[in-house]
Amino acid sequence: MTDESQTEDPMVAALLREREGYVQRGMDDRVAQVDEQLKLRGHQAPAAVKSEESSRSTPPKQRRQRGTETT
């Protein structure tokens, strides 16, 4: 079960969804800002768990690079 369904406050649910998007994109400064807003509303932010798969620094598997364009 996700955190959004465990809260009655729609603002907290929206912040949790927003936070998840920032975590997936690796935007740590934005995650910290959302965590601050969650704290102000009396909700503790979930622990930040980053997996290697969500990191943008690793290239996608089995994907070819685009060849150079010739005109």
Structural class: mainly alpha
Query: How many helices does DSSP assign?
Result: 2
Distance between the ends: 53 Å
Give the H and E element order. Answer: HH
Q: Uncertain regions: pLDDT < 50 for 5+ in a row?
A: 49-54
Largest sheet: none
Helical content band: 40-55%
Inertia-based shape: elongated
In percent, how much strand structure appears in the residues?
under 5%
Number of strand segments: 0
The pLDDT mean sits at: 77
Radius of gyration: 17 Å
Assembly category: single chain
Structure commentary:
Helix content is 41%, strand content 0%. It is built from two helices and no strands. It has helices at residues 10-25, 28-40. α1 (10-25) packs antiparallel against α2.
Write a compact overview of the structure shown.
This protein has 71 residues and is mostly helical. Helices cover 41% and strands 0% of the residues.
How is this fold's topology laid out?
Elements lengths: L9 H16 L2 H13 L31
Helix pairs in contact: 1-2
Quickly list its features.
mainly alpha
